[in-house]
Each structure stands twice: as C-alpha cells, then as structure tokens.
From TrEMBL:
<dbReference type="GO" id="GO:0005840">
    <property type="term" value="C:ribosome"/>
</dbReference>
<comment type="similarity">
    <text>Belongs to the universal ribosomal protein uS11 family.</text>
</comment>
<dbReference type="GO" id="GO:0006412">
    <property type="term" value="P:translation"/>
</dbReference>
<keyword id="KW-0689">Ribosomal protein</keyword>
<dbReference type="GO" id="GO:1990904">
    <property type="term" value="C:ribonucleoprotein complex"/>
</dbReference>
<keyword id="KW-0687">Ribonucleoprotein</keyword>
<dbReference type="InterPro" id="IPR036967">
    <property type="entry name" value="Ribosomal_uS11_sf"/>
</dbReference>
<dbReference type="Pfam" id="PF00411">
    <property type="entry name" value="Ribosomal_S11"/>
</dbReference>
<dbReference type="GO" id="GO:0003735">
    <property type="term" value="F:structural constituent of ribosome"/>
</dbReference>
<protein>
    <recommendedName>
        <fullName>Translational machinery component</fullName>
    </recommendedName>
</protein>
<dbReference type="InterPro" id="IPR001971">
    <property type="entry name" value="Ribosomal_uS11"/>
</dbReference>
Length: 215
C-alpha cells in the first residue's frame, strides 16, 4: 500500500492517476492487516487524489524561457563579460606549450613551400605557405615565395606575442624554397637556433620509382 501511495503522489496531475486507480476496484486484493479492509484504503487514496490540486503541466515548467524579461532572454549587455586575460596567459605558459625548443617545420616540395611553427608539445601555433603569401601555381615553390611566406609567419608570431627563446628547425624535401625559408627565419631569430634536422624520407630499396620523363 505504501508503494501505491508513493506512485500516486509522484504523478504530475490527479487526472493521470484516477483511471489507473479505478482499475484497482475490479481486482481482488489480499490484505495483510487484520481488518481486511483493502477496498476502503484504495478509496481513500482515490479521494485524496481527486481533492489534491493538480500540479502544473510539463509545458508550464518551461514558461520562463518564453516570458519577456526572464533570465533566459537576457540581452548581450546584461551578460557578464568573459575575462580572456587568464586564458591568454595559460596558452603562453609552459604548462600548455611545454618546456623545450619550439619547432619550425619547413616542408619544401617542388610545388609549394609550407612553414609550420609548433610548440614543444607539438601544438600548431602558426602556419604559412607560398600560396598564402599570394603566389599562384608554379610560383608557389619559388625562392621569393618561400621568403615572403617566412616573413608572413614572423608577422603572425609577433601578432600572437610568442616569445621564442630557442627553436629547432626540421627540414623536409629538397624544393627551391628550402634555403630561402631558412635564411629568412635565421635572419630574425639567428641566435636562438639550437638544432637542425633533415627529416626528408629516403627509401631503402622501396617502391619502384616512376619512369624517367622523355623531354
């Protein structure tokens, strides 16, 4: 009986429980008490459910969203401003970037020159290429394109206020922009270079090379 009473009180409206309790009248119940008056107990529950004030429906509980002047309809000026100073300081801290030299990846192919500056942990901080510098098609792999892409990368680093104490340059490929990017970057951060690495993949008897072009 206690479980039946809890079920009755947990419903949102009294109209929802009345049809369910009316069905109990047609069921034969075995009472545990000495009087055996189970039907009267069910009738008391029905009477309490009918006399109880029905609670608000589920839709009424979300009226505060559509009511004018509610907290859900606050204007942009009412909302508190988010302080970005702490986030900017954390993004430049060693706990996020890591402790060690920054990495400058120079991917010099015969079609383009891609420069990527990463943190000691490997997060990409800035990236430029011959295409982003304004060069088109075959000119993207040239010497001047790589030089302008390096200057564009340095400008991005200054905009983000990146304080590079030391860095590590990683080369990949033998394109014409390889030396141009290296000279342009070292001209600005020359004393901070700690290591040079050539990561160009070299096959050891790998796949059969392409047929030589006939010119």
């Amino acid at each position: 009986m206690w479980s039946l009473a809890r079920a009755a009180s947990s419903c949102y409206k009294s109209s929802n429980i009345t049809p369910a309790l009316n069905g109990f009248r047609q069921t034969r119940w075995v009472s545990n008490d000495s009087t055996g008056n189970t039907l009267s107990s069910l009738q008391d529950i029905l009477a309490d459910a009918k006399s109880a004030k029905p609670e608000s429906s589920l839709g009424d509980r979300f009226d505060y969203i559509t009511k004018p002047g509610s907290s859900a309809q606050q204007t942009e000026t009412d909302k508190p401003e988010f302080d970005m100073s702490g986030v900017a300081a954390y993004l430049q801290s060693t706990s996020y970037l890591g402790d060690g030299p920054y990495r400058l990846h120079i991917n010099a192919t015969f079609n383009n020159t891609i420069l990527t500056l990463t943190s000691p942990k490997g997060q990409v901080l800035a990236s430029t290429s011959g295409g982003t510098a304004g060069f088109k098609k075959a000119a993207r792999s040239g010497y001047e394109a790589a030089h302008q892409a390096t200057l564009q990368l340095i400008a991005k680093m200054q905009e983000k206020n990146l304080q590079i104490v030391n860095y590590h340059i990683i080369f990949k490929g033998f394109g014409p922009g390889r030396d141009a990017a290296f000279k342009a970057f070292v001209a600005t951060y020359g004393n901070s270079c700690k290591q040079l690495t050539d990561a160009t993949p070299v096959p050891f008897g790998g796949c059969r090379p392409k047929k030589a072009r006939r010119l």
